[in-house]
Each structure stands twice: as structure tokens, then as C-alpha cells.
Model the fold of this input.
Amino acid sequence: MASQKNGTLYIGITSNLIKRAWEHKNNLVEGFTKKYKVHRLVYFEQTENVQSALIREKQLKKWRRKWKIELIEKNNPNWNDLYNNLIK
Done:
């Protein structure tokens, strides 16, 4: 998730992406995303299971910011909020 294009980034895992993104968008989650207004779902990946999701989350969190931005822009060059596509 991101606050805006090239803004603050947040990486996390969930078993219910639509619910979790909605919670972040509506400031229902105390902490980082609420404090920094991180409300736009700009990238997501699906994994086979929780273990692989945790491994990927840890991997991405270790990446340099530049690499994260390149990953987002490869898949979503305009940094569109993907949440609305999920709920259609």
C-alpha cells in the first residue's frame, strides 16, 4: 500500500485482502498506515499458503526502496488504487 505515487510504502500480509485494504483506507487500523495516511492499494501478490506469504513479506521488507518502486511501476505504472478493481 502507498500514501501516494512515490510516497510512504507499507508491506503486510493478510488472508482477506479486500477487508484489510478497506480497514486501512478507512483508518480502522491503528499504527503506521493511519499515521502516514497509507490508503492506496498499489500492488499485491497472492501466494499458495501463509508460510510462503511470510517469506515473501520478509523478502520485500529487506528490499531497497528503489526496488520496491520498480516492482510497483512494472505492474502499475500510474500507481492506480487497485482496491476498486478487487471489489467489482
User: Anything to note?
Assistant: The first helix runs from residue 17 to 25. The two ends are 19 Å apart (CA to CA). Residues 17-87 form one domain.
